Amino acid sequence: xxxxxxxxxxxxxxxxxxxxxxxxxxxxxxxxxxxxxxxxxxxxxxxxxxxxxxxxxxxxxxxxxxxxxxxxxxxxxxxxxxxx
Length: 84
Prior knowledge:
This protein is of the alpha+beta class. The chain has one domain: 2,3-Dihydroxybiphenyl 1,2-Dioxygenase, domain 1 (Roll), CATH 3.10.180.10. The protein has 2 helices and 6 strands, in the order E-E-H-E-H-E-E-E. It has helices at 19-25, 43-52, and strands at residues 2-4, 14-16, 37-40, 61-63, 66-72, 78-83. A 4-stranded mixed β-sheet has the order 3-6-5-4, with helices on one face. Strands 1-2 form a two-stranded antiparallel sheet. 7% of the residues are buried. The mean pLDDT is 89.
């Protein structure tokens, strides 16, 4: 894993994950192409806002790493959101 952030206190960072570890987490995100996994402290609010906006969202899953859900954009690219 490589984390890119402007400083240690930054609220936004890009984290490059090992594909094998992402597959291991089984978050429903394909590693055939690059993927984005978002992290938020406002997990339920984001899930409900996307769902209310008619965005395709998957079920909330509870994994060892915490709660996650997937959503798709208009081109059917899927992304994951995890709770922090």
